[in-house]
């Protein structure tokens, strides 16, 4: 059980560590998205998360941050440095602000999930801060489900700006693409 006195420990992992954490990360993700029928309708499941992480982990600067309390993972986030063409795709690239489109210092944050019993306690902010410190880029981008108000409140507080709609494939859901210029 979490209490304000329960210490939170944040740990960083690299590309070689993702496979051993996959099942635990999928459990955290499933808890964080329980009751969000729009997520399942969009095709996002614990299995798709496992495939996504496995596909992203080979990126050289893949970084996973996990928050632990009492020895258990209570939240995680991950991302990696990438090119604007890779992250935004050819369809959206022309619509992105020129500074973010032409940068050679971009990271994509792919997931940020916190167990419900730990939400609203600053865990997401700590994970995000640790990711930014590890990735050290001028720009950060992420995708958010439209209508996920708690996540959007966090991203708005962190300074993200809406950049446009993003569809990860011809049959994929329409997501909100968000951009943040960091001080890196």
Automatic annotation (TrEMBL):
Domain N-acetyltransferase: 8-184
Gene3D superfamilies according to UniProt: 3.40.630.30
Protein name: GNAT family N-acetyltransferase
Keyword field: Transferase
UniProt KW S-adenosyl-L-methionine keyword: no
GO molecular-function term, one example from the UniProt record: acyltransferase activity, transferring groups other than amino-acyl groups
């Amino acid at each position: 059980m979490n209490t304000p006195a329960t210490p939170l420990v944040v740990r960083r992992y690299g590309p070689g560590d993702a496979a051993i954490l996959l099942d635990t990360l999928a459990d955290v993700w499933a808890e964080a998205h329980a009751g969000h029928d729009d997520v399942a309708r969009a095709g996002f499941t614990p299995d798709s998360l496992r495939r996504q992480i496995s596909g992203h982990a080979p990126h050289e600067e893949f970084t996973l941050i996990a928050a632990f309390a009492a020895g258990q993972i209570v939240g995680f986030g991950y991302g990696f440095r990438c090119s604007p063409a890779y992250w935004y795709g050819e369809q959206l690239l022309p619509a992105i602000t020129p500074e973010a489109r032409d940068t050679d210092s971009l990271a994509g944050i792919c997931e940020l999930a916190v167990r419900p019993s730990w939400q609203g306690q600053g865990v997401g902010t700590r994970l995000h801060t640790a990711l930014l410190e590890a990735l050290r880029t001028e720009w950060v981008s992420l995708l958010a489900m439209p209508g996920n108000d708690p996540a959007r409140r966090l991203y708005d507080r962190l300074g993200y700006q809406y950049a446009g709609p993003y569809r990860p494939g011809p049959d994929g859901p329409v997501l909100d693409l968000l951009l943040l210029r960091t001080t890196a």
